[in-house]
Request: fold
Amino acid sequence: MISDSSAALASAITAHAVELFHRFDPDVDAAAGLRTALAAWEKTLKADGHDVRVHLIPHQERFDGSVSYDILVRGLERTISVGLSSRSGLPWPRRGVVAADEHAVVRVNGTMLMVADVVAVLSDVFEDTAMLDRVLDEALLREALREEVVGVGDDELQDAFDAWRRGRRLLSAAETEVWLGAHGSSLPDLLSRLERLVARRKLADTVHERLSDESAAAMSPEAALSEHLSRLRGSADVEWYWGRSEQTNPVSGGSGRKS
Reply:
């Protein structure tokens, strides 16, 4: 049972999260303002002796493009989640619904395999600790990018896109479209991937700059980031939704297996 003191703190935190939401309009891009406000709030909570972490999780509905937000506060006896949706007219049953083919992976002679089918076939992947660590690192990387508020400018993204095209000798927009179609991708998907790659490099530089001179000289920015993610993995709260049931909330970090 949650203690009275923690319950009082949880109520105060929930009320403040609701108050923050009232300052921003979810029908416009509120993420930047919310993240700045939440970062300041987290510092205040820690200064008051509360070892908490505050996260902002945006979610865009695929049906109408509306955006909702969740504020997660972790570090108390229980995780607090407070959500805010836009004034979208999207009916509630359709919220969170994905397109019918979104989970499709491959079609062979008219037979479609979905993500669940592929995961079942690749069940041995859940015996590969290195592979599992890569999956966890991707989630931790996204969390770190949100917390560090690593932004990618238009010029940086354009440079990455130009380099990607040059590397594949795609000299025209038409050639690029053909290549993307042949590889089952789209321009928005590609730009999203490139943006994450640029953001990763910038985060690696940030982590590297925080090292002591001796440590920085001994490793590259990418190696520094890998080591940083490894430390985060050791204390991460992990719950696998695919694979073996014992692969959940790790005792000592790593791939999320109970020892």
